[in-house]
Write a structure and sequence with these properties.
The chain is α/β, with parallel strands linked by helices and 443 residues long. The protein folds into 3 domains: 142 residues, Rossmann fold, CATH 3.40.50; 70 residues, Ribosomal Protein L25, Chain P, CATH 2.40.240; 216 residues, P-loop containing nucleotide triphosphate hydrolases (Rossmann fold), CATH 3.40.50. The protein has 15 helices and 17 strands. Strand 9 and strand 10 form a beta hairpin. Helix 2 packs across helix 3 and helix 9 packs parallel to helix 10. Keywords: ATP-binding, Nucleotide-binding. It comes from Paenibacillus methanolicus. This is PhoH-like ATPase. Pfam families: PhoH, PIN_4.
């Protein structure tokens, strides 16, 4: 039986196409949602862009009829802007204040009560990305769900970039003899992806093992090309870091994604690889480092000074790693070094739209705070001969409408895992300090 889905404002601000994600069911947008969208449309960020997209979309649909009477959707459903279900009495008994969230809850509750009076009542579902709204709905006896249509994969199934296989010791011996293995010969039940790493371990329990990488055509398992020599003074401390460096230093892989908890070495490894490629090998003309300007906690507001001075607090984590790599002793030395080199540029992502970036090694830090649209905008800026590295921790998101699965970093990891031009690695072991690792695990 068809259902009625009542959409919260945050669903449309997260995905303007959400109204088409409910098949042949009825989609209801409370009038207060339009008011909230109108208040956001002048913002210059992603939320403002989505608010304007929703406004244009609804305006275009007016050609098919009156929104309050119902507009047919391409999936067979109906879209309705609700004006009449605004009785607040029952919700007010529970929560008192006439806030916008409670007005949306009132619409859903009144729909539910009306359906219960029918001989064949339809299910009424409130869809919201706000956890507290879903909790309030549950208190009222309403069915409430998160918006899941934009999730490309379940959290437990996110691609990790490597897999451990337990095989007969003769298979490991064969690899060391011939320096490759055919994927078909392993008769695996799981599919391997191009540039995915394989750790072979002896199923008999001995210490015999091997570290391999799937070839770009996906047909062979090959040895890692790089030894564990230092890269710009940095040596891999665990297997995942070594795999990450293999991807970062491979010029045939223009897109690399790195995920992991704080202190696993994502930024340091990427910067070391970038400096090696730009300053030592001269493979790229410039090292461009950028990160989104999304605060953790309360925003510090407007800052005085020129652009570089305004950006410095946001970019300080990058400078901290650069100071470590260049082994600077005094405050301000890193600025002199960067000014002297001229080939290293640190920027905020605010200024990347509209650019074409050829021949550069590009590092995007804190990419978990980017939406799918923002990631598409960034990667589509990459010009001929450039390499881009996106990294972050999907568990540390400061964006109000993103989570560990719906963010742009996870999205690009899953969408590109089949492509020979990309590689991914999940770093698991913290190497910053024992205290940092304990904090990441226990807190």
């Amino acid at each position: 039986m068809k259902k009625i889905f009542v959409l919260d404002t945050n669903v449309l601000l997260h995905d303007p196409q959400a109204i088409f994600a409910f098949d042949d069911n009825e989609v209801v947008i409370p009038a207060v949602v339009l008011e909230e969208i109108d208040s956001k449309k002048r913002l210059a960020d992603e939320i403002g862009r989505n608010a304007r997209s929703v406004s244009r979309l609804l305006d275009g649909m007016r050609e098919d009829g009156h929104l309050h009477e119902g507009i047919p959707l391409r999936g067979g459903g109906v879209l309705r802007v609700e004006l009449n279900h605004r009785s607040f009495v029952r919700v007010q008994e529970m929560f008192g204040e006439m806030s916008n969230d409670n007005r949306i809850l009132a619409v859903a509750l009144n729909y539910y009560l009306e359906e219960q009076e029918k001989t064949e009542p339809r299910d009424v579902v409130l869809v919201s990305k706000d956890v507290l709204v879903r909790i309030k709905a549950d208190v009222l006896g309403l069915d409430a769900q998160d918006y899941l249509s934009d999730r490309i994969v379940q959290h437990s199934e996110v691609y990790g970039g490597y897999v451990t296989l337990f095989v007969h010791p003769s298979v490991i011996d064969e690899f060391y003899t011939y320096r490759f293995l055919a994927v078909k010969a392993l008769q695996l039940t799981t599919k391997l992806h191009p540039n995915e790493f394989i750790i072979l371990r002896d199923e008999m329990g001995t210490s015999k093992s091997a570290l391999l990488k799937v070839s770009q055509d996906g047909a062979r398992l090959e040895p890692l090309y790089l030894s564990n020599d230092p890269v710009w003074g940095i040596t891999a401390r665990n297997a995942q870091q070594r795999m990450a460096l293999e991807l970062l230093l491979n010029d045939d892989i223009p897109l690399v994604t790195l995920t992991g908890k704080a202190g696993t070495g994502k930024t340091l490894l990427a910067l070391a690889a970038g400096l090696s490629k730009v300053e030592d090998e001269h493979k790229y003309k410039k090292l461009l480092i950028a990160r989104p300007v999304v605060p953790m906690g309360k925003d510090i507001g407007y800052l005085p000074g020129e652009k570089e001075e305004k950006l410095r607090p946001w970019m300080q984590p990058i400078y901290d790693n650069l100071e470590y790599l260049f082994d600077t002793k005094k405050s301000g030395d890193i600025d002199k070094i960067l000014m002297g080199l001229g080939s290293i540029q640190v920027e905020a992502l605010t200024y990347i739209r509209g650019r074409s970036i050829p021949g550069q090694f590009i590092i995007i830090d804190e990419a978990q705070n980017l939406s799918r649209h923002e990631v598409k905008t960034i990667v589509s800026r990459v010009g001929e001969g450039s390499k881009i590295v996106l990294m972050g921790d999907p568990e540390q998101i400061d964006h109000p409408y993103l989570d560990a699965v719906s963010n742009g970093l996870t999205h690009i990891v899953e969408r590109f895992k089949q492509e020979s031009s990309s590689g991914h690695m999940t770093l698991e072991k913290g190497e910053r300090s024992k205290l940092a690792q304990l904090a990441a695990d226990l807190l």
